[in-house]
Write a structure and sequence with these properties.
Distance between the termini: 78 Å
Keywords: Membrane, Transmembrane, Transmembrane helix
Strand order of the largest sheet: 1-2
Structural class: mainly alpha
Pfam families: DUF2306 (PF10067)
Organism: Streptomyces inusitatus
Number of helices: 9
Shape: globular
InterPro entries: DUF2306_membrane (IPR018750)
Largest sheet: 2 strands, antiparallel
Number of domains: 1
Protein name: DUF2306 domain-containing protein
Helix content: 55-70%
């Protein structure tokens, strides 16, 4: 009985320590390839839709109104499309993980092209185009898009120059989301018109109000939804950050295995 009491008072042996979690496996390269292929195909689709009417430099084929009181609008429109096309091509290079990892110098040079030969001149010309269509359908949404596109891209570039790479990547991902409005905005506009029984490009006068509603909605949803997806993706990436990564308070720079240095 004494032995039983001694056994009863003996604490249970501690369970063996749990084994450490398995190390993170290599990135899903197949998923990255699929993502890059879809991005390139989307960019080609935008070019196929936007560029043909302007290849011959014929103002009569322009897809937007050209009021006679703004004789330089066509030239500004062609420049906006040209610089926007450069932004989309260099954007594909910027988000390519293999290029960023294996050839950082090319990543930096294409990043400068993205900023100074793509986004910024395209945005500046878009402000002129907005002036020529002041008060039209979707004007406020497009003006907000242009302002945010300019700000996120410029701040992302400045953060790279400051070597605050985590903030640089965050703002450049937002810039990427706004660049992709060239695709999502057109898909939404045409989709809304088809849902309302209209054929894009052939809008009867009695359906002008419905067309303006579709234009207003797509001018906002085309980039707001993109930003929401980008924010969701960034938050998800942050929650899966490796435990060894530490962020300096107030700087946004990272020390540890999660640190990266993709500067534009």
């Amino acid at each position: 009985m004494t032995q039983n009491l001694e056994r009863a008072g003996t604490p249970a042996p501690a369970p063996p320590p749990s084994s450490p979690p398995p190390p993170a496996g290599p990135p899903d390269r197949r998923g990255v390839r699929v993502w890059m292929i879809l991005l390139v195909l989307s960019t080609v689709a935008v070019f196929a839709y936007v560029l043909p009417p302007y290849l011959g430099l014929d103002p009569a084929k322009a897809t937007v109104p050209l009021p006679p009181e703004f004789p330089t609008k066509y030239a500004m429109l062609v420049g906006h499309i040209l610089f926007g096309s450069i932004a989309m091509v260099t954007m594909c290079l910027q988000v390519w993980p293999w290029l960023r990892r294996e050839h950082p110098a090319i990543h930096r040079r294409s990043g400068r092209l993205y900023v100074f030969a793509g986004v910024l001149p395209s945005v500046v010309l878009s402000f002129y185009l907005l002036v020529t269509s002041f008060g039209g359908p979707g004007w406020v949404g497009r003006a907000s898009l242009a302002a945010l596109w300019f700000i996120t891209t410029l701040v992302g570039y400045v953060r790279a120059r400051q070597r605050r790479y985590q903030e640089h990547r965050r703002f450049m991902i937002y810039s990427f989301a706004l660049t992709m409005e060239a695709l999502s905005g057109r898909l939404l506009a045409n989709g809304l018109m088809l849902a309302m029984g209209m054929t894009p490009g052939e809008i009867p006068t009695e359906q002008a109000a419905a067309m303006m509603t579709a234009a207003e909605a797509s001018a906002w949803l085309g980039w707001v939804v993109n930003l929401m997806i980008a924010a969701w993706w960034l938050d998800g990436r942050g929650s899966r950050r490796k435990p060894g990564a530490k962020t300096k308070a107030g700087t946004g720079t990272v020390r540890g295995p999660a640190a990266t240095a993709p500067s534009s």
